[in-house]
Amino acid sequence: MSFSMPYSSRKVYDAELMQLDTMLARMGHAAGGAIESAMTALRNGDIELARSVIARDSEIDAAEHEIEHRCLTLFLRQQPVAGDLRKVSTALKMVTDIERIADQASDIAEITLHLHPEGTHSVGVMEDLNRMGEIALRMVKDAIGAYVQVDLSMAAQVIAKDDDCDAMFRKISGEIAKYIAEHPADAETALDLFMISKYLERLGDHAVNVAEWVEFLKTGVHKSRKIV
């Protein structure tokens, strides 16, 4: 016997699913804002802005816990049909990636606190780091946009863009390795900048994860495997 919700219960459930969308979108926009602020702080040596990114990370952590609680409540209160199951499962998976995006923005801000602007610019990778930051930020924003619009084309573009992010990481890594070989006394600053490039590369990976969960939301297929 198939399960069918009463009409009034279905309306309430649909409203709660829409609210879940709104919460995830807000959290995603907050994570994107954290990346933008962290990269601006790095570019300008803005210590106060870097500290504000770190301080706001707890708000995004709290949003993660609230969304996880909402998802579990939705599972427990109703017996979701396939489409609802995909929606709530996607939210549970995405929220982890969005929280990690915010964490990595906070990590970039942490490094910025003890970087010296003169030493940073002498390494010679700031222009490439800024470009990589723009790519990663665009990927995150588009991944969240793809979720909000359930847009498979936009999700596919995010996944394809990861090649550009990875190429920038390889370029920056090579430049930093060469700089350290020629200026071993400045290795600490150069390695800090390498870590920033690594965090940006991870941001791209998390954006790809979000985009792949958008594909699952629409099709029930994740990484070419049918799930729901």
Automatic annotation (TrEMBL):
InterPro entries for this protein: PhoU, PhoU-like_sf, PhoU_dom
Keywords per UniProt: Cytoplasm, Phosphate transport, Transport
Domain of life of the native organism: Bacteria
Domain spans labelled PhoU: 24-112, 129-214
Gene Ontology biological process: intracellular phosphate ion homeostasis; negative regulation of phosphate metabolic process; phosphate ion transport
Cellular location(s): Cytoplasm
GO cellular-component term (any): cytoplasm
First-listed, main subcellular location of the protein, grouped into a coarse class: cytoplasm
Function: Plays a role in the regulation of phosphate uptake.
Subunit architecture: Homodimer.
Similarity-based family: Belongs to the PhoU family.
The protein, known as: Phosphate-specific transport system accessory protein PhoU
Gene designation: phoU
